[in-house]
Amino acid sequence: MFLENGFYPQNKFWKYLVGSIIIFSASLIGQIPFGIAVVAKTIMAGKPYPTTNEEVMTVFEPNMTLFLLLLSFVFGLFGIFLVVKYFHKQTFLSVTTSRSKVDWGRVLFAFFVWTLFTAGATLLAYFDSPENFTVNFKPIPFFILAIIGIVMIPIQTSTEEYVFRGYLMQGFAVLAKNRWFPLVMTSLIFGMMHIANPEVEKMGYIVLIYYIGTGFFLGIITLMDEGMELALGFHAANNLVTALLVTSDWSAFQTHSIFKDNSTPSVGFEILTPVLVIFPILLFIFSKKYQWTDWKEKLTGKIDVTVKSNQIDEINEQPNV
């Protein structure tokens, strides 16, 4: 069982707090190259150092900015690996899934399902209101964007999933000895981590409903499926396809995407549609394909903290990934 993978005798909740600080510190180190590059560029150009986030984002062209921004997640993911392997003495597989190996079929299924939906919804919005979009496609910048996105964005989304649906979910399970508390806490923290996004500034804090709802959705599919594979695939598709298809002046990532959304950001029912309509449909699709049962127990039940020595040995012998 996925959450039970964290119940090693040596694992205490305080270790997850220390581990989180280490992971966060690794991510901060990963931001240093961006800072150095900005300083060097402004000195060479004879310009003052940018003082706002908007100014920082325009120092380099979008592809370079995207690459430097995503670089911190490479350091973050490496930090997670080190913390799990050497601080908690667990395999990386144990914070990924309850299965004997990663089920890449699940990752790809979630990726392609959400890719089809996102692409379809974007095209529908374009044909319904073409006046809100301009074609932003430039072959060479888009090709470079595609390379950066395909390589780096899955690292970014995987880092977030390993932190929230893997590491912290198991950590809160160790603390609470149940399933609902890790689900609630990781979803709330995941949503609040997006509070600095430009979308929140433009549309208000009500947008956090979407981010928190997404956190709950990803947590639910992780608990029901006893592993992160579906969450990994969904999250990668969401960020990668969006980056390739559409950008705007107020989105978190400015990219050389195919379309640019020129509409004025507003808050309406579309904020609630994914949470109340689309995510439940996806839950239905996943549940039928993977034959999920016993929802109440898997989402809210208590955890049997009795871990026999032979079970611990079996977990320790699982191959790393």
UniProtKB/TrEMBL annotation:
GO terms for molecular function: metallopeptidase activity. Signal peptide: none annotated. The keyword Hydrolase applies. Keywords: Hydrolase, Membrane, Metalloprotease, Protease, Transmembrane, Transmembrane helix. It is an enzyme of class 3 (hydrolase). Residues 144-241 form the CAAX prenyl protease 2/Lysostaphin resistance protein A-like domain. Pfam families: Rce1-like. Its EC number is 3.4.-.-. The chain crosses the membrane at residues 21-44, 64-87, 107-127, 139-159, 180-197, 203-223, 230-247, 267-286. The keyword Transmembrane applies. InterPro entries: Rce1/LyrA-like_dom. This is CPBP family intramembrane metalloprotease.
